[in-house]
Amino acid sequence: MDYIYKDGTMIVKNVTSLDLGETLDCGQSFRWRDNGDGSFTGVAYEKLVTVTIQNGDLHIENTTEQDFEKIWRNYFDLDLDYDSIRSSIGEIHPVLKEASAYAPGIRILRQEPWEALCTFIISQNNNIKRIKGIVDRLCTTFGNKIGDTDFYTFPKPETLAKLTPDDLAPLRAGFRNKYIIDASRKVATGEVDLEKCKNVPYDDARAELCKIKGVGNKVADCTLLFGMHRIEAFPIDVWMRRAMERLFPGMTGEDFGEYAGIAQQYIFHYARMHPELFEG
User: Fold this and answer.
1) How far is C-alpha 47 from the geometric centre of its chain's CA atoms?
2) Among 17, 152, 181, 227, which lies 20 to 30 A Cα-Cα from 135?
């Protein structure tokens, strides 16, 4: 990987298979703002950056070389060969080949596990616009302001564990408030071990997360995929169930192999952008 650091901006040369819009606004992360000029500004791991792609190079503004190596290189999954993976999984099924070619710029972000867990609890029976609003209010109310900006850090579980569901009323998250509090308390006390979930067998990791009230297989799978890079995960929601029934009858996530989570994102985006496939 070739990169140049200049005046607070890391420039990663010749990045392939990364479309910022497809990756940052597809429903796997809810902290990025589209600036309307091809750039996105967001917070991850308590760091605020603006990212763009210019002439095939990824520009990460307002960062350091140390933070690039510690955070952003992994966050954007820059060391994984998505070109090769897309070619490989495209051989599994012709529709998957078409779906992966339709949005080749989707990457799986390596998010902070607690943030992923909390935001996907919020995502239940919700839409992306509303999820973003709730997450923004959560950070604004209980996170820490980042410098002279209107961005805030994601509140730590220890902070939220001291609260009650009623304290979260300003979020307008409804029934999800009690799940957020239960999750924060169990993570803060170690009753649920997020670090452990990164390495134990998949079913054990899912069972660990399902100790939390309101967390079922879908939220657990999303947390494992987007917060722990368990790319064998294959989250199934109502939309994905329809897509599987219509486009891949008789198949399950296991049929997509070790990169099932990447395949899932291609399928999800393809199905969402082609509603005509589900007519009639």
Assistant:
1) 16
2) 17
Beta bridge partners of 10: 5, 60
The mean per-residue pLDDT over the stretch 196-219 comes to 97
Average pLDDT, the chain: 96
Closest to 225 measured CA to CA, from 246, 253, 252, 251: 253
Residues forming a β-bridge with 43: 48
Tell me the three state secondary structure of residue 43.
strand
The closest of 115, 128, 116, 126 to 219, measured between CA atoms, is: 116
Phi, psi angle pair for 175, to nearest 5°? -60, -20
pTM of the full structure: 0.95
DSSP 32-51: EEE-SSS-EEEEETTEEEEE
Strand partners for 9: 6, 61
Whether 164 and 152 have beta carbons less than 8 Å apart is answered as no
In whole angstroms, what is the distance from residue 73 CA to residue 110 CA? 9
Section 63-78 average pLDDT: 97
Instruction: Give the pair of three-digit tokens for residue 22.
Output: 């497809």
Question: Is 64 exposed, middle or buried, given 0-12, 13-18 or 19+ CB atoms closer than 10 A?
Answer: middle
Contact 109/77 with Cβ under 8 angstroms?
yes
- Is 49's pLDDT higher than 70? yes
